[in-house]
Amino acid sequence: MTPGSRKVAVVGVALSECGRVDDATPYALHAQAARRALADAGLGREVVDGFASAGLGTLAPVEVAEYLGLRPTWVDSTSVGGATWEVMAAHAADAIAAGHANAVLLVYGSTARADIRAGRRTGNLSFGSRGPLQFEVPYGHTLIAKYAMAARRHMLEHGTTIEQLAEVAVQARANAALNPEAMFRDPITVDDVLSGPMIADPFTKLHCCIRSDGGAAVLLVAEELVRDCRTAPVWVLGSGEHVSHSAMSEWPDFTTGPAAVSGRLAFERAGVRPEEIDFAEIYDAFTYMTLVTLEDLGFCGKGEGGAFVEKGRLLVRGGELPVNTDGGGLSAQHPGMRGLFLLVEAVRQLRGEGGERQVWGPDGPGELPRLGVASATGGWFCSSGTLVLGRD
After folding, report:
1. Which has the closest alpha carbon to 97: 168, 225, 2?
2. 374 has which bridge partners?
3. Which residues contact residue 94 at a Cβ distance below 8 angstroms, ignoring those fewer than 6 apart?
4. Domain Thiolase C-terminal: where (predicted)?
5. CB distance 381 to 258 below 8 Å
6. What crossing angle do the helices spanning 339-350 and 84-97 adopt, rounded to 10°?
7. Do the Cβ atoms of 214 and 19 come closer than 8 Å?
8. So what's the pLDDT on residue 141?
9. Across the chain, where does the E strand assignment appear?
10. In terms of CB atoms within 10 Å, which of 51, 153, 249, 370 comes out highest?
11. Cis amide bond preceding 26, omega within 30
12. Dist. CA 10–CA 31, nearest whole Å
């Protein structure tokens, strides 16, 4: 095959222990997820010649690769917040297609919840005050406040209501109720969301992601390795990435996120349209992220996200476009940079491994979905990575 012509498949996905994990280190969660992903694929670690990781160690991914006993000849440590893993997966797919690697392992692990519980760290309100951020931090622009301001702008310009934003959290919890691995599964109502303690106006507690521990791993390989795997391949059909701003003052439109660019590129490169997608896994640190990303990806028009999320459209059972089928960061797990968890869930859905939360294709129960999209956002809508995935 000529360089650049190889197809790329995801053949192994796994989660480590997730939720409340008080007796493991982040390195241990990395290793657990990595071992499980390789076992899922039916491959040994000797095939891994590419490695990508971020968020742990002084020289990520060098330290993590050493801990896992890997000596890769292709590495990536791109770090753009929650979108890191979709961007890394895109880079890995390009490298494999070009013949620079044959099997790339992406791994993440965090004990964010346990560390705070044990007093090893405190909750961070911002990412620091150096560089462009020095002009915002003195005014109290915390991470949550930035998303809250963006949500308020959408409400002002497009008439989006707080009840519509609350619907995102309610439907995520309903999907989580079908997921035995989800951290929170008890049903909630719109009133429950609205009556919670205020975090950053207009976000109450249930508008915000949970804090958990956990890890995830994804293995991508060249098409000639697929025959050696125990799982059905899920193909990377198209990808896109985009960075938009760092300072909020440089963000031209609070109602449009970077997924408007990364999504367009991913769909164009995959040769599919949004209306062909069977389900979507979307980064949801806050309810507004889900709503505006649905608009940005073209599932509804700009300003129509509020109406789109009403009437159960995001539900696994009965929804027109199941979104965050595992319960998302709002209910399932959120140990930090959650983008890798989106890819794990998307692959499981395409392979028919969703259990009670399995999404069906257009013809109804029994038909597996054929196309899914995973789109993650990083920072405060600073970056985005989007992948279109499909099965044979």
Report:
1. 2
2. 281, 387
3. none
4. 240-391
5. yes
6. 60
7. yes
8. 78
9. 8-15, 50-52, 74-76, 103-110, 198-200, 203-204, 214-222, 234-243, 279-282, 371-378, 383-391
10. 51
11. no
12. 19
Identify the DSSP state of 181: T
The CA distance from 136 to 273, in Å, is 39
pLDDT in tens, 62-80: 999 999 999 999 999 999 9
- The count of residues in the chain is 392
- Give residue 169's pLDDT band: very low, low, confident or very high (50, 70, 90): very high
pLDDT band, residue 1 (cuts 50/70/90): very low
348 vs 125: CA distance, rounded Å: 34
The C-alpha atoms of residue 248 and residue 70 are separated, in whole angstroms, by: 40
Q: Is 185 helix (H, G, I), strand (E, B) or coil?
A: coil
User: Which of these, 107, 85, 62, lies nearest to 215 by C-alpha position?
Assistant: 107
SS3 156: helix
- CA 104 to chain CA centroid, Å, is 18
Instruction: Give the β-pairing of 214-222 and 8-15.
Output: antiparallel
Q: How far is CA 326 from CA 100, 183, 193, 309, 363, in A?
A: 34, 10, 19, 17, 22
- 164 pLDDT band, cuts 50/70/90, is very high
Structure tokens at 89: 């997966």
| Structure confidence by residue, pLDDT tens digits, 224-281 | 999 999 999 999 999 999 999 988 889 999 999 999 999 999 999 999 999 999 999 9
Amino acid identity, position 16? S
Half-sphere exposure (Cβ direction) of 306: Cα atoms closer than 13 Å? 16
Cα–Cα distance, 132 to 193 (Å, whole number): 34
Could you tell me the two tokens for 279?
Answer: 């389900």
Tokens of 14: 């796994």
Indicate yes or no: pTM above 0.85: yes
C-beta of residue 82 within 8 angstroms of C-beta of residue 110:
no
pLDDT of amino acid 4: 63
Q: Which of 378, 55, 79, 43 is nearest to 215 (CA)?
A: 55
CA 40-44-50 angle, to 5 degrees, is 95
Pairing status of strand 279-282 against strand 371-378: parallel
DSSP state of 286: B
The Cα 258–Cα 295 span in angstroms is 11
